[in-house]
Design a protein that fits this description.
Length: 249
């Protein structure tokens, strides 16, 4: 089994020295469930791309400090790769920026939220998945978030599997409800509360206004820890199960 990680941005040096880059975080999380998998990371934001979509059985698209609406050539190349993955039904799992760039590549629209930043531990509704491959997920999920942009229009054929008042399109699935070929989500199931605290501190007063960062930090301190890892591995397992079933035929 081959899993490819498409790393779309870097972390602050002090934080990366502790936790590694996005690709390292996802690889550790994936190996808890699939220790024998062949896992490789491509730093696409540095123009490091796989040759073809067929190089992996599952592609994970990470978060990023960039916006999907930035005018970078590597973003256009990434959109083309994601279209290739969709066309040959190679499963895609997108987180935050990954959630947005997959939607954009497939015809969706991404805009800055009129409600401002979505930061900290937020409640999400996953209760509308009865009869789908995701019906075993909890109906209410509390996950960590860090974003200002979000999907304002879903691509044709996509269906919403996760939502909140702040972010109505917090999770998208593509393909049949019984066997989706791509699953994406706006929050960060790979983040621990400690990691998000350190990331907020690193970006406080820079990309995130100090008062907004301080409010999010206070809320995280007042709320119990959130463990999103089981949600991430559950949706990854769903995609891999259907991919490997197709490969066996």
């Amino acid at each position: 089994m081959r899993i490819g990680i498409l790393e779309t941005g870097d972390l602050p040096p002090d934080l990366a020295a502790i936790d590694g880059q996005y690709g390292d975080i996802f690889e550790r999380l994936l190996r808890t469930q699939w220790p024998a998998a062949e896992i490789r990371c491509w730093r696409v934001y540095q123009r490091d791309f796989p040759i073809a979509a067929q190089e992996a059985d599952l592609w994970v698209v990470t978060g990023s400090r960039h916006s999907v609406n930035d005018n970078f050539e590597w973003l256009r190349e990434l959109e083309q790769l994601l279209l290739e993955c969709a066309n040959c039904q190679r499963p895609l799992l997108g987180i935050c920026f990954g959630h947005q760039i997959i939607a954009k590549a497939l015809g969706g629209r991404i805009e800055a939220s009129t409600q401002g930043w979505g930061l900290g531990a937020l409640e999400y509704d996953a209760s509308g998945n009865s009869g789908s491959a995701l019906e075993d997920l909890p109906g209410s999920i509390r996950l960590l978030a860090l974003h200002q942009d979000q999907i304002s229009k879903a691509p044709p054929g996509a269906w919403v599997w996760l939502r909140s008042d702040y972010c109505p399109i917090a999770g998208l699935a593509y393909g049949p409800r019984s066997a989706p070929t791509a699953l994406t989500m706006q929050p960060h199931p790979e983040f621990s509360p400690a990691f998000l605290v350190n990331l907020l501190r690193a970006r406080r007063g820079k990309t995130i206004p100090s008062d907004i960062a301080d409010l999010a930090l206070a809320k995280i301190a007042a709320q119990p820890p959130v463990n999103g890892a089981p949600i991430f591995t559950a949706i990854a397992a769903t995609l891999l199960r259907f991919r490997l079933q197709k490969a066996d035929k």
